[in-house]
C-alpha cells in the first residue's frame, strides 16, 4: 500500500490559520493563577486563538469605547437556567417531596362489582371471588394451604393486561384489604393471614409505599428540576443513578440540553416509569455532591435533546479594566431569554460612555457571530480539521488531530511527540491519556481499516465529525459576514442579499437522512417551508437588516448575488472546495441560513453600589429556597456597579453581545490572562 503516514517529525505545529500570537509569561504566572484548578501544566508555550482567527472582525458601531474583564473565573460566576419550549425559565423553587396521586375510589354494589370482574376475567372467576368476599373472617383454607396451592379462587391463562385491570378494580372499587398474587400464571385472591410478608400484595400495605399507578398520574414520566455544579449533565445523571441503586438507570433519564460542569446550572429532567420517592429519599446524599432536586411532577412525555428555547444565564465578569478609563467587572443574567449584566467596580468610566454603548446595542444590535466556543481552545482549531475533511484531505486532517501542537499538557505532548517520531499506532495508543478520546478513536480506526484515512475518519462517532464540519461552516459564515460588514455596513439590506420567505415544502429522503445524521451549524428546521430569496432593487423597501440571512456552506446552499457571493466562492476555492461541485464536499451537510444581525429586546440598565469586592451580587435558586438573604445595593458604597438587562433569542451568543459593548477578545485563552490584581 505504500507509506501512509509521514515519518518526518515536523519542526513545528502544522500550519494553521494565521494570526495566532504566543503568550509571553512574566514572573507573576498570571495564566497559571487564573487556571489554578488545572491539574496539568502546559509542556509548550501557550498559543492564543483570537477572534480574528475565526473570522470575528467587525463591529456594528466601531466608535464605541470598551473594557476588558475576566469571564467564568469560578463556577459560581456562571449560572445557567434552562428555558423550555413554552418560554418558561426552569427555576428550582420547591424542595418538597413528590405528591403521588391516589386513585379515586368508586364503591360499587355487589352486583355491579361482580359484573365488572366477570367482564375482566370470567363469570366463574367472579363467582369464586364473591364467595371469598362473603366470608371475610374465614382465612383457614388459605392459612393451611401450601404456597403453590393458594386457591380461594384461581383462574389460569389470565393475560397480564387482565390482571392489571383486575388489580385496578380491586383498588378502586373494593373497600377491603384483599390479598392478590399471581403465582406461575395463577391469579389468587384471599384474605390476609399472619404468615403474610411485606412483599405480598394487599389493598392496604404499610411496609412500603404503594406502587405508583401511572394511569392516574397524568403520564408515565416523572419531571423534576436539578440544580448542579462541578459536574456536567451526564455526570449528574450517573451520580443520581449510582446513589439511587437499581431503582433507576442512566438510560431512564432524559433532558433537553447538556450543561457545563464549570457552572451552576438548573434544568428539567424526566425519568421514565420510576417512583420519584426513591429519588427524593437520596436528596441529602445528592446535596453533598452539590446536586439539588425538586419541583417534582408527572408528565405524559419525556424530554429529548433540543426541547428548549434557550438558557437563562448569570455570568460574573470580575476585575474588569476599562480600556480608556478605570476598572470594571460584570455579571450577566438571562431570564426568559433575558440577559442581565452587572458590572462590578465601575471606576473612572463615565456614565455617558456607558449609556452610549448600551443605547447603540439597544438600537443597532450586534453581529450574530458564532462565538469562540464553537472553535475549541486548542492551538489547532476545530474548523481547521473540518476544512481538511471537507476538502477531502484526510491525511492532513489526521496530522492536525495527531501531531504535536503548542500549548498541550505534558502527557498529551509526550504521546504526540512519540507519534511524530514513530508513527506506531499501538505504542502511541498506550501512551495517550484516557482523556484523548478523539485521538484514541482515530488511531483505533486506523488499526481496524488498515491505515485507510477516509474509512478511518468516517468510522468516527457522528458527534465527533459533526463538531469539525459545523466549526468549518461557522468559520466561513463568520468570515463572510465580516466582509459584508466591511463592504456594505450593518444598517440595511442591499441588492443580492438573501432573506427567507415561504416556499413549497419539498422532501428528499436521502438528503434529509444525511442532514438528520450530521445536522448543520445553524440548526434551522429543514422541514420548514422557508426558502432563500435574492433581493432585487425593488425588494429593498420591503425588508430590513434584521431579515437578512447568510448561508452556511452546504450541498444545497444558495449564496448572495453580490460581492459577498463572490467572497464565499473565493474563500471556499482557497480551501480547494468548488461551489459548483458542492455535493462532493458537502454530501453530509445540506447547508443552512443564519440571520446576520441580532437586535436585543427589553434593554435597560441601572447603577448599583457595594463596598466589598467579594460581595455576592445574586443568589442561586437553592439559596432563595433556603432563605439566604438577597444581596442589596449599599447606599454610598465604595464601588459602583451597573446592571444591564436585555432579551436574546435562541442560537445567539451572549459573548458576542458582550463583545460589541466591551471591545475585548472573548476567547477563553485571552480571558485567562485577565486576573485579579
From TrEMBL:
CDD domains listed in its UniProt record: PseudoU_synth_ScPUS7 (cd02576)
Annotated ranges, domain TRUD: 365-599
Keyword Isomerase listed: yes
A GO term from the CC aspect: nucleus
Region feature Disordered, mapped onto this chain: 1-22, 503-531
Keywords recorded for this protein, A-Z: Isomerase
Position of the signal peptide: none
Biased composition (Low complexity): 506-517
GO terms, molecular function: pseudouridine synthase activity; RNA binding
One GO term of the biological process aspect: pseudouridine synthesis
Pfam families membership: TruD
Presence of the UniProt keyword Isomerase in the record: yes
Skewed-composition ranges (Polar residues): 1-18
InterPro entries: PsdUridine_synth_cat_dom_sf, PsdUridine_synth_TruD, PsdUridine_synth_TruD_insert, TruD_catalytic
Domain of life: Eukaryota
Family note: Belongs to the pseudouridine synthase TruD family.
Name of the molecule in the record: TRUD domain-containing protein
Amino acid at each position: 500500500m505504500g507509506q501512509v503516514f509521514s515519518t518526518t517529525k515536523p519542526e513545528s505545529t502544522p500550519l494553521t490559520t494565521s494570526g495566532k500570537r504566543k503568550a509571553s509569561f512574566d514572573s507573576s504566572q498570571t495564566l497559571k493563577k487564573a487556571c489554578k484548578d488545572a491539574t496539568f501544566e502546559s509542556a509548550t508555550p501557550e498559543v492564543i486563538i483570537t477572534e480574528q482567527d475565526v473570522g470575528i472582525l467587525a463591529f456594528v458601531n466601531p466608535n464605541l469605547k470598551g473594557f476588558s474583564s475576566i469571564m467564568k473565573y469560578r463556577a459560581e460566576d456562571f449560572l445557567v437556567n434552562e428555558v423550555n419550549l413554552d418560554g418558561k425559565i426552569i427555576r428550582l423553587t420547591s424542595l418538597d417531596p413528590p405528591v403521588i396521586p391516589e386513585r379515586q375510589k368508586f364503591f360499587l354494589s355487589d352486583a355491579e362489582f361482580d359484573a365488572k370482574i366477570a367482564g375482566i376475567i370470567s363469570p366463574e372467576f367472579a363467582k369464586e371471588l364473591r364467595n371469598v368476599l362473603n366470608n371475610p373472617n374465614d382465612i383457614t383454607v388459605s392459612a393451611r394451604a401450601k404456597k403453590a396451592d393458594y386457591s380461594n379462587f384461581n383462574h389460569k391463562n389470565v393475560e397480564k393486561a387482565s390482571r392489571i385491570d383486575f388489580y385496578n378494580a380491586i383498588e378502586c372499587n373494593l373497600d377491603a384489604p384483599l390479598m392478590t398474587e399471581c403465582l406461575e400464571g395463577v391469579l389468587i385472591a384471599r384474605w390476609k393471614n399472619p404468615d403474610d410478608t411485606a412483599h405480598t400484595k394487599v389493598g392496604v400495605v404499610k411496609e412500603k409505599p404503594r406502587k405508583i399507578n401511572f394511569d392516574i398520574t397524568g403520564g408515565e414520566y416523572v419531571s423534576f428540576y436539578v440544580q448542579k455544579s462541578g459536574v456536567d449533565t451526564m455526570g449528574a445523571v450517573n451520580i443520581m443513578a449510582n446513589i439511587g441503586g437499581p431503582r433507576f438507570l442512566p438510560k431512564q433519564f432524559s433532558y433537553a440540553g447538556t450543561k457545563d460542569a464549570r457552572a451552576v446550572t438548573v434544568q428539567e429532567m424526566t425519568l421514565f416509569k420510576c417512583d420519584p420517592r426513591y429519588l427524593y429519599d437520596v436528596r441529602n446524599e445528592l446535596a453533598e455532591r452539590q446536586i439539588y432536586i425538586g419541583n417534582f411532577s408527572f408528565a405524559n412525555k419525556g424530554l429529548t435533546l433540543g426541547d428548549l428555547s434557550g438558557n437563562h444565564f448569570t455570568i460574573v465578569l470580575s476585575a474588569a479594566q476599562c480600556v480608556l478609563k478605570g476598572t470594571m467587572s460584570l455579571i450577566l443574567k438571562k431570564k426568559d431569554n433575558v440577559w442581565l449584566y452587572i458590572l462590578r467596580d465601575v471606576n473612572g468610566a463615565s456614565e455617558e460612555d456607558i449609556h452610549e454603548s448600551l443605547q447603540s446595542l439597544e438600537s443597532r444590535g450586534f453581529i450574530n457571530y458564532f462565538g469562540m466556543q464553537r472553535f475549541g481552545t486548542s492551538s489547532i482549531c476545530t474548523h481547521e480539521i473540518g476544512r481538511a475533511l471537507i476538502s477531502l484531505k484526510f491525511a492532513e486532517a489526521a496530522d492536525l488531530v495527531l501531531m504535536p501542537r503548542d500549548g498541550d499538557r505534558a502527557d498529551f505532548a509526550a504521546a504526540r511527540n512519540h507519534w511524530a517520531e514513530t508513527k506506531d499506532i499501538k505504542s502511541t495508543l498506550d501512551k495517550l491519556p484516557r482523556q484523548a478520546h478523539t485521538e484514541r478513536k482515530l488511531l483505533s480506526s486506523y488499526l481496524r481499516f488498515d491505515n485507510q484515512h477516509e474509512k478511518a475518519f468516517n468510522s468516527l462517532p457522528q458527534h465527533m465529525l459533526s463538531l469539525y464540519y459545523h466549526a468549518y461552516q461557522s468559520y466561513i459564515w463568520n468570515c463572510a459576514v465580516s466582509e459584508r460588514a466591511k463592504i456594505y455596513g450593518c444598517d440595511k439590506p442591499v441588492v443580492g442579499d438573501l432573506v427567507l420567505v415561504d416556499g413549497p415544502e419539498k422532501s428528499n429522503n436521502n438528503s434529509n437522512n444525511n442532514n438528520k445524521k450530521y445536522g448543520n451549524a445553524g440548526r434551522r428546521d429543514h422541514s420548514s417551508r422557508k426558502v432563500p430569496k435574492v433581493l432585487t432593487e425593488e425588494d429593498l423597501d420591503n425588508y430590513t437588516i434584521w431579515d437578512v440571512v447568510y448561508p452556511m456552506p452546504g450541498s444545497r446552499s444558495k449564496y448572495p448575488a453580490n460581492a459577498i457571493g463572490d467572497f464565499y466562492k473565493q474563500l471556499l476555492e482557497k480551501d480547494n472546495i468548488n461551489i459548483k461541485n458542492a455535493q462532493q464536499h458537502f454530501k453530509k451537510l445540506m447547508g443552512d441560513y443564519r440571520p446576520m444581525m441580532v437586535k436585543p429586546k427589553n434593554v435597560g440598565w441601572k447603577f448599583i453600589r457595594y463596598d466589598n469586592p467579594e460581595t455576592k451580587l445574586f443568589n442561586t435558586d437553592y439559596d432563595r429556597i433556603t432563605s439566604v438573604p438577597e444581596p442589596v445595593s449599599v447606599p454610598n458604597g465604595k464601588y459602583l456597579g451597573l446592571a444591564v438587562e436585555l432579551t436574546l433569542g435562541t442560537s445567539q451568543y451572549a459573548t458576542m453581545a458582550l463583545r460589541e459593548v466591551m471591545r475585548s477578545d472573548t476567547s477563553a485563552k485571552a480571558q485567562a490572562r485577565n486576573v485579579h490584581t
